[in-house]
UniProtKB/TrEMBL annotation, chains A, B:
<dbReference type="GO" id="GO:0050023">
    <property type="term" value="F:L-fuconate dehydratase activity"/>
</dbReference>
<protein>
    <recommendedName>
        <fullName>Mitochondrial enolase superfamily member 1</fullName>
        <ecNumber>4.2.1.68</ecNumber>
    </recommendedName>
</protein>
<dbReference type="GO" id="GO:0009063">
    <property type="term" value="P:amino acid catabolic process"/>
</dbReference>
<dbReference type="Pfam" id="PF02746">
    <property type="entry name" value="MR_MLE_N"/>
</dbReference>
<dbReference type="InterPro" id="IPR018110">
    <property type="entry name" value="Mandel_Rmase/mucon_lact_enz_CS"/>
</dbReference>
<dbReference type="GO" id="GO:0016052">
    <property type="term" value="P:carbohydrate catabolic process"/>
</dbReference>
<feature type="domain" description="Mandelate racemase/muconate lactonizing enzyme C-terminal">
    <location>
        <begin position="204"/>
        <end position="300"/>
    </location>
</feature>
<keyword id="KW-0460">Magnesium</keyword>
<dbReference type="InterPro" id="IPR036849">
    <property type="entry name" value="Enolase-like_C_sf"/>
</dbReference>
<keyword id="KW-0456">Lyase</keyword>
<dbReference type="InterPro" id="IPR034610">
    <property type="entry name" value="L-fuconate_dehydratase"/>
</dbReference>
<dbReference type="InterPro" id="IPR013342">
    <property type="entry name" value="Mandelate_racemase_C"/>
</dbReference>
<dbReference type="InterPro" id="IPR029065">
    <property type="entry name" value="Enolase_C-like"/>
</dbReference>
<dbReference type="Pfam" id="PF13378">
    <property type="entry name" value="MR_MLE_C"/>
</dbReference>
<keyword id="KW-0479">Metal-binding</keyword>
<dbReference type="InterPro" id="IPR046945">
    <property type="entry name" value="RHMD-like"/>
</dbReference>
<dbReference type="InterPro" id="IPR013341">
    <property type="entry name" value="Mandelate_racemase_N_dom"/>
</dbReference>
Amino acid sequence: MNKSVQMLHRIINLTVRDVRFPTSLEQHGSDAMHTDPDYSAAYVVLDTDSGLQGFGLTFTLGKGTEIVVCAVNALAGLVVGRSLEDIVSNFRGFYRLLTSDGQMRWLGPEKGVIHLATAAVLNAVWDLWARAEGKPLWKLLVDMDPKQIVSCVDFRYITDVLTEEEALDILMKAQEGKQHREDQMLNEGYPAYTTSCAWLGYSDQQLKQLCTDALKSGWSRFKVKVGADLEDDIRRCRLIREMIGPNNTLMIDANQRWDVAEAISWVSRLAEVKPLWIEEPTSPDDILGHAAISKALAPLGIGVATGEQCHNRVMFKQLLQASALQFVQIDSCRLGSVNENLAVLLMAHKFQVPVCPHAGGVGLCELVQHLILFDYICVSASLSNRMCEYVDHLHQHFTCPAVIQNAHYMPPKDPGYSCEMLESSVKSHQFPDGDIWKQHMKK
Amino acid sequence: MNKSVQMLHRIINLTVRDVRFPTSLEQHGSDAMHTDPDYSAAYVVLDTDSGLQGFGLTFTLGKGTEIVVCAVNALAGLVVGRSLEDIVSNFRGFYRLLTSDGQMRWLGPEKGVIHLATAAVLNAVWDLWARAEGKPLWKLLVDMDPKQIVSCVDFRYITDVLTEEEALDILMKAQEGKQHREDQMLNEGYPAYTTSCAWLGYSDQQLKQLCTDALKSGWSRFKVKVGADLEDDIRRCRLIREMIGPNNTLMIDANQRWDVAEAISWVSRLAEVKPLWIEEPTSPDDILGHAAISKALAPLGIGVATGEQCHNRVMFKQLLQASALQFVQIDSCRLGSVNENLAVLLMAHKFQVPVCPHAGGVGLCELVQHLILFDYICVSASLSNRMCEYVDHLHQHFTCPAVIQNAHYMPPKDPGYSCEMLESSVKSHQFPDGDIWKQHMKK
């Protein structure tokens, strides 16, 4: 550990704000289950006695963000007063402290509002750590000793699939070629796909224009929202497939719209457009349902992807055990921050299932790019069937927005976890008192 | 529908309060994962234009109750302004409205804080309905037409196991002998077991005295908390088995303390005291883990029970599909009220797995007794291997507390869902401003 962490950085204050963007006005982000999202965040700032700050967030869809803010405040007492050094010297213990409080765990455990709040707080702690080390988060992870990586993970409830020793073994084996892969990422970036072309609320004309523009910018992987109306889906998917041609990649996303049998029959009808995966075909809780769908769609060459609402490592463990998914979609704000995502990356590697992170929303691209860079450099060592979601919205509100070049995420260079927002953006979008909302409510 | 519902009862106000009882002071409710619970509730009151009120709650463990209160307030806008008649004429639709709001479902969906809040609100709506009909809730359900029962259930995500037609068929078949079973319940009550004798924080002397007293009062089924220390568990379980003799029933409860392999080895060591079930051996999310534990313990004659933290019908569906539990422990405040519990009772019946509700806490006995009476009279028609938990705490704070006679729950006779609290109790236990807490904080 270098000098800056030895300076301790005692956390003396935690603030959390309810920041909302009125995205529903233009149907950005609309899907079969979330028809009018206002992309939002519970945004956390940690102040330390050294003056260094940590920034973190969890993503939400508008209404109810105030509940997550309330939950962050409930967790604040476990954070304020501690030093960064205290926390990271026993990060597993700190994770356990936040997720297993004898009174608050009843509200989860490790799921829903309380876990979203945990993610926001821990994201800020990881940001603080990376800043203290003067590195972007992915580089902090890449430079860490495998033993220290493993010491950040709570293996409770997953030892039947992954023990600490196995995790260490995976990380040790992947040391080979690490430097080469890091250099490769710095040169080429990590492959991305776009969801910006085909939200459910967009018109056909919008789809066409957006596809044309995306192809011109070098995109070759496209995701389409489906699930509201079958005939409409067929028309829209054909249109996109026609636009992008047979050699580019198409994925479809139902956002949990179907029951198991309906998912199988509906997606079978869409097989003609050759989607690589169907994302979130049914309830995020239905492990056995996803397994049944995976089995039924395998002969059609369509995989199942899920994860953005998979609430913790125990659920991912079972999705992997049951061969219920062929693409693991980690989320930087749903799981318990880097700590829990490390567990999922390691389990996915054990089962040899590719990780294709969920992003978009607000800040999700900025955050999750760090995790997938680490996955490639230090865990999976493969780009086969792998790509990270990208959505071209709201990046202008961040101090270090994600950088896309030729449809690849370019590794961030600034210290931290890339989710510091511009103070002016936070102020104007604070709910309900920011200028944007005051104007909006007047209408 | 009788005249009182035709009066409409428009809901004109919803209030929610944070009510906490300092139970941690005497180690009541202590277990291997929740060492210091303060039994608490987010307590909801609905006011209508007719003057009729509805009372509901969800149970919590102290800290964080304010988060659930915040979530109830977020849901209030979907409730206030509607009439009871509107709601119950399309109760499935109303359930869907509360659980599938396009922005708020991101916070769950149907799990954690937002689902606990949904339970509190819907419990109050059911209370209001039963009061409007002048019946205790169990009797409202028992007198309902099977078609109307089914119309209260959201079958989304469970049709691969239970369709609306199958549910109707189950209810129709159970019409036979219904009157006899109702009379039987009114005479004998529903069998209960006690958890009051053996909380983890109690001394051996306390255990002995409480067992002696319970045996004298007619109790024959006893649950013991385990999981903190194996040698301690062996000593305590032997002591209780000795006290109650070989013919009474003993259950053990680990409150999620173990990983899968540890659960199997630990419980195997306790097989000598012949427990009927091991409750919550591991993470409530681990369906496949529970299945592995069930399989390993079956040769020892020990079943697996779980449910108090099983967060929705999709999880119960899978626990049943995977033969992961031998006792279904529904909870009146974790699931989405009566609506979702009906789905679970019907699925459990289809799989012929007995339902043994979770109770205790504050108000849980009062609420869940209604559901298990309905289960016996209208669904399962069996008492074999069935019993409802009872804990002898905090009943004095309710206007119509649960009545136990000879270790049986006697069917409530007052209209409603039995969770109206004494206003004096609410006032003095409100957090943080009630007298009890003001005194407590001074110390």
